């Protein structure tokens, strides 16, 4: 029974709770049991809020018993990335510097999930402050990829993706600054969406790089992602950068997948050296399938994308150097050296020395340097110009195509430890995802097969213009349906049993 | 502490030409903070007016206070500035425990208002134009109290207390262009500028601008150059000079100190300096050897501010009469001299007098009370005139009672005294102290009879036609009635009873 419950999609689970076939408590208990059974191996969760989750589930069952209307995801369990504040529940952002901090407030996303009666099981592991592509930068140890526990689950949202892929939760929330939702989705054969910048409130989402960060839905199916998208998206007066327009009709699009007559762009710059042969093969097959489904495939060039990685590694560190300045041991979190023999300034320095990991320090130093007077124009200023050029390349591309597709990431999941000492190799994992963040567009990653050489999942990235998030779901649903028909089952079913 | 050499002021000015820059921070009187919904009320328990945003908690985000932007635009317009069509906030990055995010949300190269001027009038009536570089929006920091240690500064303190109630209160920073050509009047210009700015801010209704409450704070930047030289000298920045008098004294002190250093072949160190109220001196603060690098960059958490032109014009047309023009108009209306007007201004009585007139008093009476009796009272009790415990409405009531003949001057003074002593409104004081003028004949008649009987010799003189002697009898009646008699009626009765024609 338990095995069946945890393998249901979120949409199925919600339907069974609504019909009374399952109670929310049963569903929650099944997932808590699954966490208990496998998470020691996977390490997707940093904190499991057993009591909170059961209380929420009981409330859903009570609502149903009272005949109150239930939302489309009421009672469905979710794994929340530990970057969103949760009132009364620890929030660490994967960092020692926030160890033990209990936020006094809920992020807007947290609040919307609670309001929709989504059951929050706990907080998932991540690269410290979302800086990384492997979850190895978590101060609390790495997460294993359920496909091969010796390999990375992607990052920074590796915990959320691994929770989905190991059936510990049917839904998860991630954040995507340069690919942190899409790249983990790709390497775990799950679905992850980075909404249009401003589509989902950033209030209560601990900032890494404010102009790039975007929260989004993670799930095992396109429809589940859409249902979750609709719950968390929408204008929030607490976030000035939140867009005040209606949420695109993502659920409707996910229920009506189609690519017939659609113009699909393939970008020359997303390929070539550094791309694994099996990844390229599966991507090409996906393009072929789109053509067979009735799409028109157009080859495009976006020359400025060559500079995207360089621009990103100036903008993101610059913003993070400022965003992370508040961690000074004065008001919350870790405090080191407060023994009466150190000044306030020294306590701040000692705390930051002890509390931040090497990747965070690397980026804070990089960003501090890039913003210094005398260097600002050459670094931060130039990066902003590149950003404008990338946006223009996208705009030009979207004049001739409706969506763009690419491999989500150049390689499949690499072994834990392989790239930790080579930051540049690590940064390449986000080659295809970063331009989207720089331009503020929407993008999705969904499974498109296993690479023949290593049997590991490959992700297909779909990119849509800003505010056209529904296109992702329309195309994604069509591709997903075609693949499932071709494979005879969802790809994730081929993952080894844990 | 080393003794600082000062050159006599006149000697300093004989050789050197001062150049000033004034940076004034004004706390806006908005109901809520600049980037969150917390109250800005003063005097609340420490840290009771805070939220995730103004505490800089992880995940929190700012939202711009529209009233703050409106106030900034009003100030810019009143200072004859151009208003930006599009501008952004910027982060000013530096570490300090009372700054929750360790960056201040401010504006950098895109201020909301720029390129303006303010005409200020000096004591002798001369008008000096101060050019305004910019006015920009930012947020205040929290407040640190350093406990232990001799100086009250962080160095040497055993611990520090932090109150974030002030963190995030909207500030407008108004920066002048270098003020040149003021010569020996530079300190006076500095004072007059800050005074005029304060009046302007108050007239706009955007802040109470009370310097003693820290709602308005001034930094005085000053440098000297040899007379005839064009190039500016090295400047010192005297921080947080918090009264008009102090602004003048700080400028004067720095002129004398710079001159002493320069005239002995020394060089001025670019540094911040602390001003000391007690003796008007300044002492060295932080030396800016390497100019602090604030790593400004556009605030990514806020969208640009782009005030529509028609809104700006609407605000412009709604601006109140500017203080200097208003003063000119009132001076003419009241028919008083420059000198009298200056006394009114120096006493801080202008708005009180206007309010008293608005409450029905005539101008002369309103000026007489505020500049006389009440100014004296303020002086004696060591408070500013507006703090004297009587309202313009109460003063107007007293003056109405006098005009109606219910009080004479002497009684009116007693009523004022009663109000100041907390005995209630003028009418209550009149009732409780029984201070009505007595003009009814039966009551007065007895007193007049008594006075005639008591002063037979004087009465005889009057009967003999010496009308000048009547004053003595009137005085006697006043004494008998404890000053409450209507003097005019007493005189009539005296003459009538003694059978003489007035
Ligand atoms: Zn607040």
UniProtKB/TrEMBL annotation, chain A:
What enzyme class is recorded for this protein?
ligase
Keyword annotations for this protein, in alphabetical order, are: ATP-binding, Ligase, Nucleotide-binding, Protein biosynthesis, Transferase
Q: Which reaction does it catalyse?
A: L-glutamyl-tRNA(Gln) + L-glutamine + ATP + H2O = L-glutaminyl-tRNA(Gln) + L-glutamate + ADP + phosphate + H(+)
Location of the Amidase domain = 26-472
Any one GO molecular function term: glutaminyl-tRNA synthase (glutamine-hydrolyzing) activity
What biological process terms from GO does the record include?
Answer: translation
Q: What is the superkingdom listed in this entry's lineage?
A: Bacteria
| Record SUPFAM superfamilies | Amidase signature (AS) enzymes
For this protein, the Enzyme Commission number is: 6.3.5.7
Pfam families given in the database record: Amidase (PF01425)
Which residues are the active-site ones?
81 (charge relay system), 156 (charge relay system), 180 (acyl-ester intermediate)
Q: Name one GO cellular component term.
A: glutamyl-tRNA(Gln) amidotransferase complex
Matching entries from PANTHER family are given as: GLUTAMYL-TRNA(GLN) AMIDOTRANSFERASE SUBUNIT A, TRANSAMIDASE
Q: What NCBIfam families does the annotation carry?
A: gatA (TIGR00132)
Q: How does it assemble?
A: Heterotrimer of A, B and C subunits.
Tell me the function of this protein: Allows the formation of correctly charged Gln-tRNA(Gln) through the transamidation of misacylated Glu-tRNA(Gln) in organisms which lack glutaminyl-tRNA synthetase. The reaction takes place in the presence of glutamine and ATP through an activated gamma-phospho-Glu-tRNA(Gln).
Q: Which HAMAP family match?
A: GatA
Q: Which family does it belong to?
A: Belongs to the amidase family. GatA subfamily.
Entry protein name: Glutamyl-tRNA(Gln) amidotransferase subunit A
Organism, as annotated: Actinacidiphila rubida
UniProtKB/TrEMBL annotation, chain B:
Q: Which reaction does it catalyse?
A: L-aspartyl-tRNA(Asn) + L-glutamine + ATP + H2O = L-asparaginyl-tRNA(Asn) + L-glutamate + ADP + phosphate + 2 H(+); L-glutamyl-tRNA(Gln) + L-glutamine + ATP + H2O = L-glutaminyl-tRNA(Gln) + L-glutamate + ADP + phosphate + H(+)
Coiled-coil residue windows:
none
Q: What is a single molecular function from GO for this protein?
A: glutaminyl-tRNA synthase (glutamine-hydrolyzing) activity
Which InterPro entries does UniProt cross-reference here? Asn/Gln-tRNA_amidoTrfase_suB/E, Asn/Gln-tRNA_Trfase_suB/E_cat, Asn/Gln_amidotransferase, Asn/Gln_tRNA_amidoTrase-B-like, GatB, GatB_Yqey_C_2, Gln-tRNA_amidoTrfase_suB_CS, Gln_synth/guanido_kin_cat_dom
Q: Where is the Asn/Gln amidotransferase domain?
A: 351-498
GO process terms (BP): glutaminyl-tRNAGln biosynthesis via transamidation; translation
Keyword annotations from UniProtKB, A to Z? ATP-binding, Ligase, Nucleotide-binding, Protein biosynthesis, Transferase
NCBIfam families reported for this sequence: gatB, PRK05477.1-2, PRK05477.1-3, PRK05477.1-4
**What's the protein name?**
Aspartyl/glutamyl-tRNA(Asn/Gln) amidotransferase subunit B
């Amino acid at each position: 029974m338990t095995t069946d419950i945890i393998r249901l999609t979120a949409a199925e689970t919600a339907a069974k709770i609504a019909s009374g076939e399952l109670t929310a408590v049963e569903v929650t208990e099944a997932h808590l049991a699954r966490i208990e059974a496998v998470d020691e191996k996977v390490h997707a969760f940093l904190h499991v809020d057993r009591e909170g989750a059961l209380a929420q589930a009981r409330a859903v069952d009570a609502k149903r018993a009272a005949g109150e209307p239930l939302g489309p995801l009421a009672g469905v369990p979710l794994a929340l990335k530990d970057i969103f504040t949760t009132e009364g529940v620890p929030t660490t952002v994967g960092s020692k510097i926030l160890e033990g901090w209990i936020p006094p407030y809920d992020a807007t996303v947290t609040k919307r999930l609670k309001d929709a009666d989504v059951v929050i099981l706990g907080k998932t592991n991540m690269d410290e402050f979302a800086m990384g592509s492997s979850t190895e930068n978590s101060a609390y140890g790495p997460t294993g990829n359920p496909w091969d526990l010796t390999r990375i689950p992607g990052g920074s949202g590796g915990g959320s993706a691994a929770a989905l892929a190991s059936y510990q939760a049917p839904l998860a929330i991630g954040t995507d600054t340069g690919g942190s939702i899409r790249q983990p989705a790709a390497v775990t054969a799950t679905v992850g969406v980075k909404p249009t910048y401003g589509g989902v409130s950033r209030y209560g989402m601990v900032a890494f790089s404010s102009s790039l960060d975007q929260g989004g839905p993670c799930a095992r199916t396109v429809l589940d992602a859409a249902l979750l998208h609709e719950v968390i998206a929408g204008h929030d007066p607490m976030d000035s950068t939140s867009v005040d327009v209606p949420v695109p009709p993502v659920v409707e699009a996910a229920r009506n997948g189609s690519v017939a007559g659609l113009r699909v762009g393939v970008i020359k710059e997303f390929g070539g050296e550094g791309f694994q042969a099996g990844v390229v093969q599966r991507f090409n097959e996906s393009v072929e399938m789109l053509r067979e489904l009735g799409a028109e495939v157009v080859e495009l060039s976006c020359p400025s994308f060559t500079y995207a990685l360089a621009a990103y590694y100036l903008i993101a560190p610059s913003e993070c150097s400022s965003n992370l300045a508040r961690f000074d041991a004065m008001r919350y979190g870790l405090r080191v050296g407060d023994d009466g023999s150190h000044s306030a300034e020294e306590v701040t320095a000692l705390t930051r020395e002890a509390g931040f990991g090497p990747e965070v320090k690397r980026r804070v130093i990089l960003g501090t340097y890039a913003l210094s007077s005398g260097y600002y124009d050459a670094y931060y200023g130039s990066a902003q110009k590149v950003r404008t050029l990338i946006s223009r390349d996208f705009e030009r591309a979207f004049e001739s195509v409706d969506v763009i597709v690419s491999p989500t990431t150049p390689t499949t999941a690499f072994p834990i430890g392989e790239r930790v000492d080579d930051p540049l190799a690590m940064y390449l994992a986000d080659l295809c995802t970063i331009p989207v963040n720089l331009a503020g567009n929407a993008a999705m990653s969904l499974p498109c097969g296993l690479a023949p050489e290593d049997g590991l999942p490959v992700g297909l990235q779909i990119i849509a213009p800003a505010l056209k998030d529904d296109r992702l779901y329309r195309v994604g649903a069509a591709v997903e349906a075609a693949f499932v028909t071709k494979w005879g089952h969802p790809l994730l079913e081929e993952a080894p049993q844990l | 502490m080393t003794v600082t050499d000062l050159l006599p002021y006149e000697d300093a000015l004989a050789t050197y030409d001062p150049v000033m820059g004034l940076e004034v921070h004004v706390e806006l009187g908005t109901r809520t903070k600049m980037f969150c919904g917390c109250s800005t009320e003063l005097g609340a328990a420490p840290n009771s007016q805070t939220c995730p945003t103004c505490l800089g908690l992880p995940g929190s985000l700012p939202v711009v206070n529209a009233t703050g932007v409106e106030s900034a635009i009003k100030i810019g317009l009143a200072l004859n500035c151009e208003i930006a069509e599009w501008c952004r906030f910027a982060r000013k990055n530096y570490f300090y425990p009372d700054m929750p995010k360790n960056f201040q949300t401010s504006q950098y190269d895109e201020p909301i208002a720029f390129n303006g001027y303010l005409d200020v009038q000096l004591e002798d009536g001369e008008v000096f134009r101060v050019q305004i570089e910019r006015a920009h929006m930012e947020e205040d920091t929290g407040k640190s109290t350093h406990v232990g240690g001799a100086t009250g500064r962080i160095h040497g303190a055993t611990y520090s207390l932090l109150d974030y109630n002030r963190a995030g209160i909207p500030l407008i920073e108004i920066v002048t262009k270098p003020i040149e050509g003021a010569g020996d009047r530079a300190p006076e210009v500095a004072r007059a500028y800050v005074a005029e700015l304060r009046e302007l801010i108050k007239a706009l209704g955007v802040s109470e601008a009370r310097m003693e409450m820290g709602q308005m704070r001034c930094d005085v930047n000053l440098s000297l150059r040899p007379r005839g030289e064009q190039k500016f000298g090295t400047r010192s920045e005297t921080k947080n000079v918090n009264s008009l008098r102090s602004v003048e004294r700080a400028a004067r002190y720095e002129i004398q100190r710079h001159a002493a250093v320069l005239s002995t072949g020394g060089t001025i160190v670019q540094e911040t300096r602390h001003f000391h109220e007690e003796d008007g001196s300044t002492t060295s603060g932080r030396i800016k050897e390497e100019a602090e690098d604030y790593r400004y960059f556009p605030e990514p958490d806020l969208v640009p501010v782009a005030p529509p032109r028609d809104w700006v014009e609407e605000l412009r047309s709604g601006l109140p009469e500017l203080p200097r023009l208003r003063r000119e108009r009132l001076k003419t209306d009241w028919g008083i001299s420059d000198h009298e007007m200056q006394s009114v201004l120096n006493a801080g009585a202008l708005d009180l007098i206007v309010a008293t007139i608005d409450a029905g008093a005539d101008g002369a009476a309103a000026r007489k009370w505020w500049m006389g009796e009440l100014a004296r009272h303020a002086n004696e009790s060591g408070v500013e005139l507006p703090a004297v415990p009587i309202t313009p409405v109460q003063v107007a009531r007293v003056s109405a009672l006098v005009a109606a003949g219910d009080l004479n001057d002497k009684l009116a003074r007693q009523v004022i005294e009663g109000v100041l002593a907390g005995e209630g409104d003028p009418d209550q004081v009149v009732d409780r102290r029984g201070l009505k003028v007595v003009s009814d004949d039966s009551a007065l008649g007895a007193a007049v009879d008594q006075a005639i009987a008591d002063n037979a010799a004087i009465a005889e003189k009057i009967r003999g036609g010496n009308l000048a002697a009547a004053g003595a009898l009137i005085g006697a009646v006043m004494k008998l009635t404890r000053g409450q008699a209507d003097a005019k009626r007493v005189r009539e009765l005296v003459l009538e009873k003694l059978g003489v024609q007035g």
